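2024-03-11 09:14:02 DEBUG pipeline.ingest accepted 1 chain
2024-03-11 09:14:02 DEBUG pipeline.ingest length=129
2024-03-11 09:14:03 DEBUG pipeline.predict start
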Amino acid sequence: MVKKPTAPAALACENVTESSAEVTNITGIAEPISLDTSGAAYDAARRAFAQAYGTAVVEAGLGGSIPFIAEFARTFPGAAVLVTGVGDPASRWHGIDESLHLEMFGRGVHAEALLLAELVPGAEAIEQR
């Protein structure tokens, strides 16, 4: 019998056969969260990534079940929690054949540097090495 979870939970499948599956509700593993992506830090991130990639930013609702994000947002309610990822569909994140094109990685590093330069006062004066 499959039971619908009554609280945020991770699900584990047990005793899977071709015709049935038993699902167990496991609480306390990773609380899902949806973040408000408005504000100065998010705007700076959009500008940095658009500049580094040469195209408009596409936002996707991913990573909301990463365990520390909900706890971090709860502990620091005024902080902008920004979770970024670099890749494309061919990257196959977390798969056995996960990959990352080096140009894509370079653009991601550039975007993060641009973001930090905008967010940290005086960062533009730091010499590039």
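2024-03-11 09:14:41 DEBUG pipeline.report The helical segments are 40-53, 67-75, 102-119.
2024-03-11 09:14:41 DEBUG pipeline.predict end
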